[in-house]
Design a protein that fits this description.
The chain is mainly β and about 300 residues long. The chain has no helices and 30 strands. It has one domain: 6 Propeller (Neuraminidase), CATH 2.120.10.80. About 0% of the residues lie in helices and about 45% in strands. The strands form 9 sheets. A 4-stranded antiparallel beta sheet has the order 3-30-27-26, with no helix packed on it. Strands 4-5-6-7 form a 4-stranded antiparallel beta sheet, with no helix packed on it. The chain is globular and about 45 Å long. The termini are close together. Keywords: Kelch repeat, Repeat.
Length: about 300
């Protein structure tokens, strides 16, 4: 299938059509229960996933490690903070972090927890200094983690940096554009990229780059294709490109190339359409897993292999 994606003012012609690339490969299902609104991060060549809510919307505390070398899941130490949904996860060096979200009573949270995979232990760290919130977005660059946007009773656009060396938070410049929840992010070459999300029922299509050296956000090429705007999707980066996948009523996958600031269509996600999924990158593959659609909860995991042409 050929799709045309317009950038700027140029029109769609045969020369503008690009071949969808990439292939989706189903991997071993999560050994835990199917769930939505889980949290995840990748450390080295291992992926981690946990928390979320099951088919009865009971909040979960279990945590799992995925090994892509043998396509297996191993249960790890359960999360020791309050069970939650709508949290954020990020990894800094050899540690993983979980923050914000909704507890079992749907109260918003601002605590921060650190996972040490070597010791298989959890430790509480300095609370997130922004307001307690759900469905924020997070990413990490170097030795710093970044958390922002979300919903605390109002839509938000503030951003905060976490410094594990001092266990301290600092406020940074707010993202441009609309306030939002349910955005997605990825990191390429020391820059953070955030886009999509929802504000008052409207899915967003703007796209922003964060430069930690200058503490500045710069608006980049926005989505012009209607299938690209979404909320509650996932982001991941592989091979110098960033990808947005899943989201509300959405199977389309879009790839961003920072070298020429363009978007192109990648092969559509082959699992069921879903929201509240988890995504991360391991090696040269991106992963999308768990999530929900209506009353359905998912435990499947799919790997995206980017260098396969789809005619």
């Amino acid at each position: 299938m050929f799709l045309c994606f317009s950038v700027g003012l140029w029109s769609c012609s045969s020369e503008d059509v690009t071949t969808n690339t990439g292939d989706w490969v189903k991997k071993s299902d999560l050994d835990g229960v199917a769930r939505h609104s889980a949290v995840g991060f990748a450390i080295g060549n291992r992926g981690y996933l946990g928390l979320g809510a099951d088919s009865d919307n009971r909040k979960l505390s279990d945590f799992w490690e995925y090994n892509p070398d043998n396509n297996t899941w191993t249960q790890k130490a359960s999360f020791t903070g309050p069970a939650r949904t709508g949290a954020v996860g990020f990894a800094i060096q050899d540690k993983g972090y979980v923050s914000t979200g909704l507890d079992a009573n749907d109260e918003r949270l601002n605590d921060l927890w650190e996972y040490n995979p070597a010791a298989n232990t959890w430790a509480r760290k300095a609370d997130f200094e922004g307001s307690p919130r759900r469905h924020a977005v997070a990413f990490a660059i170097g030795n710093v983690g970044y958390v922002g946007t979300g919903y605390d009773g109002s839509y938000l656009k503030d951003f905060w940096a976490y410094h594990p060396a001092t266990d301290a938070w600092s406020k940074i410049t707010s993202i441009g554009g609309a306030k939002r929840l349910g955005a997605a992010a990825f990191v390429i070459n020391g820059k953070g990229y955030v886009g999509t999300g929802n504000n008052n029922g409207l899915d967003q299509s703007d796209f922003w780059e964060y430069n930690p050296t200058t503490d500045e956000w710069t608006e980049k090429t926005n989505f012009d294709e209607t299938t690209a705007a979404r909320s509650y999707g996932v982001g991941f980066s592989i091979g110098g490109k960033g990808y947005f996948a899943s989201g509300v009523n959405n199977l389309s996958v879009w790839a961003y190339d920072p070298s020429d600031e363009t978007w192109s269509s990648a092969s559509s996600f082959e699992g069921a359409s879903r929201i509240y999924a988890v995504g991360w990158s391991l090696g040269q593959q991106g992963y999308v897993m768990t999530g929900s659609s209506g009353l359905a909860r998912y435990d499947d995991i799919w790997a995206f292999v980017p260098d396969v042409a789809q005619e």
